[in-house]
Amino acid sequence: MRRITLWILSTLAAVVLLFSYRTSLGAATPTTTTAATGAGTTGNSDTASTGPTTGETGTTASGKTYQGSVASTRWGDVQVSITVADGKITAVSVPVYPNSNGKDKQINARALPILTRETISAQSADIDTVSGATVTSDGYIESLQAALDAAHVG
């Protein structure tokens, strides 16, 4: 009886230790700007936007930049900014996205580049959500649609 009790307790302790072990999530930072030429920069949601929440925010040599509204999601805010030239989306950036913990960073490091590529390819907000990043994808699409409405595109 004592052997079985000891065996059960040691097995239970091993299972608890196994499930409480955390693997490394990595320190990958997502590429959040994608231009039609493939160039990218890194975004950070810790910086506050001082411009309007929706609408035209500036003109660059490659077109006008429009910022979507901030979409509040379960895991944090998402905001999309697009650059439009000759009625086409030439670049997409995500200046605000959930990045408060390692899991958010890991998910968005994979999801945001996919979403920006899809946006440039589709030239509209009619894009698929990224599996495993559904909440961020939904916020991205909401903010993207606001930016497209402001730019009168798609």
Describe this entry's structure for a reader.
By secondary structure, this protein is an alpha+beta fold. It is 38% helix and 23% strand. The chain is built from three helices and six strands; from the N terminus they run αββββββαα. Strands 1, 2, 3, 4, 5 and 6 form a six-stranded antiparallel beta sheet that branches. It is rod-shaped, with a radius of gyration of 21 Å. It starts with a helix and ends with a helix.
Lay out the secondary structure.
Elements: H1 2-20, E1 33-35, E2 55-60, E3 63-67, E4 71-73, E5 76-85, E6 88-96, H2 102-122, H3 134-151
Antiparallel strand pairs: 1-6, 2-3, 3-5, 4-5, 5-6
In a nutshell, what does this entry contain?
The protein is α+β, with helices and mostly antiparallel strands and 154 residues long. The protein has helices at residues 2-20, 102-122, 134-151, and strands at 33-35, 55-60, 63-67, 71-73, 76-85, 88-96. The chain contains three helices and six strands, in the order H-E-E-E-E-E-E-H-H.
How many β strands by DSSP? 6
Which percent bin holds the helix content?
A: 25-40%
β-strand percent reads 15-25%
User: Kindly, what is the distance between the CA atoms of the first and last residues, rounded to a whole number of angstroms?
Assistant: 72 Å
Supply the key terms.
154 residues; alpha+beta; six-stranded antiparallel β-sheet; 6 strands; rod-shaped
